[in-house]
Structures are given as C-alpha cells and as structure tokens.
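explain this:

___
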Amino acid sequence: MTYKLSSPARRALLGAAGAAALAALLPATAHAEGPYPDRPIKLIVPFPPGGGNDAIGRFIAQRLGETLKQSVIVENRGGAGGLIGVEAALKSPPDGYTLLVISPSYTINPSVFKVNFDPSNDFTAIGQISAGALVLVANPSVPAKTLGELVALAKAKPGTLTYASSGQGGIDQLATELFTSMAGIKLMHVPYKGGGPALMDTIAGQTQLFMSTLAGARPQLAANAVRALAVTTAKRIPALPDVPSIAESGYPRYDVTLWHGVIAPKGVPPEIVARLNAAINAIVSTPEAAQRLAVDGVAPAGGTPAAFQALIRQEIVQWHKVVAAQGIKAE
C-alpha cells in the first residue's frame, strides 16, 4: 500500500531533515577552524609608514608572527591624527584577528577631536609594549640652565618664551601645557607638522623650547645643539642620568610617559587575550627588544591587560582635564 503525505506533513518532514543535516555539519565546521590563530592576523598602525609607531608596530608584528606561528600583517591606516585607523580597528569583529598599535594620541584625541567611539570602553586591552620619557630641551641661547631658572625667567617675562610642538593636540604640547599649568607660567605655543621640524627650529633658535622624544633629542644633546632641562617621567632615566625629572624639580605630581601598546575591539575572548598578552610579554623581555626599542628612545614595558587598561583610562581622564583647562582645540 502506498501512503501519500499531506502538504503540512511533507513540509514538517523536510524541515526536520534539513535541521538534522545542518546539525550534522556544525561540529565539522567548528573543528575546521582549529585553535587560535588559524589564519593571518592584521595589526593596524594608525599612522603612515616611517614613524616611531610604525617601526615599533612592525617589530612587534614580526616577532608576534614568529611566536604564534602565524602571519601578522601590518596595515598602515594614517589620517586625522590616528583616528581613522583607530576607528577601523575598533569596529572590526572581536575575534583576535584585528589588533591595533596605540600610543598617547589614543588617550588625547577624544578630548581634542570628535570621535565615533567610546575610548574608555570600546576596546580590549592586550598589553603594553614600551614606556619612555620626553625631554624638555632648550636652545643654548636660553639663559636658564635648570628648570627652576626657566620658571623664574618665564615669570619675569610672561608670554615671551616660545615652545614648539609636533602639532595641535600632540603629546608634546599637552606635556608642556601640563607643566606650565603646574608651574603657573605662560609660554607661547608654536605648532609644527611633526616633531622633526619642531626640533630643528628649536635648534635654529626660531623657538626656544621643545618637549622632544629621547630618540630625537639624544644626538642633538651630544652635539650641544640643545640643552636638556628635565625629563617627564617621575624618575630620571638611565639614558640621561644627569638630567633631573620635572617631578624632582619641584612638581612631584608631574609624570608623563611616552608609551606604546596593543589593543583590540571590545569583546575579544579572554583565552585569546591571555595568549596574545603572554606573547607580547615574552617578546619585550628579550635583549633584542630592549635594543630595538632603545632606537626609538623607549624601554620594554610588558605587564597585564588589566594594568594597561587602567593606564589608558587614567590618561583619558588626565588629558581631558588639561585640554579643557588650557582651551586646546583642533586646528
């Protein structure tokens, strides 16, 4: 005898068969992906090639690839002071396959520019790569030999001393403005398009002061083209043991660090975060990393994702206060 299914029964049977077939495929698909990482990782550098962020990003990408046994491809997404690359990275899937190199600009930009993300919460901290100091240098014609003498000179001639910066809203400008606010002095700001031109004009005497990176300042200090007055970290740095910190020169709450690190979009699984963090810590603990980072005037950092997350959030608050108090606006 032949039985003929009604239309509703036929649809139910076909639906059940389709669901069973799909269920049978799912485990195979899940296992096919394999353990992380099973495909290339993209590391976004939110600045053009050639700068310090790019150099450090490429070093980390190469060593991370060797450690994870997977390609790590650097993608430069420069523009808008780093915002274009940051927004592209933070809007990517939180699967551990898109990472982002950041520096203090990440914590400054939200207070200077309009951003389309929450800088305090729309990220997963992976790990800190480096930490270093900026160096306050003066043209040799400036009569002040110490930070105390500089403050006295600035108070005697308010608004006449000039300082250069790499551009409006840069870490060097904000580090200088934080100092001037603590010292109760006023300096005239002269923004440039990059730290190189700012340092060169300070050497030439077009401007008198500049908060330089160590990498930029070191050869100029050796040539006596500029004079170092202080470093921005809480303590002195080994590379310039005779140069006091701003903190020890009478401003104990002053502490500005030039750092680099890696973050990812919000929601990356904890096990992937732990693996990436362990890899970065292993990389920066090597003598090779210390030597390579010293070229850019910084030292290896490392540490936990939680510690790096706390640093980022703390600096967002700190720079917001400086920007608001000093009336710093985008160009």
User: Anything to note?
Assistant: The chain is about 45% helix and 15% strand. The first strand starts at residue 41 and ends at 45. Residues 7-33 form the longest helix (27 residues). The domain at 41-132+257-326 is CATH 3.40.190.150 (D-Maltodextrin-Binding Protein; domain 2).
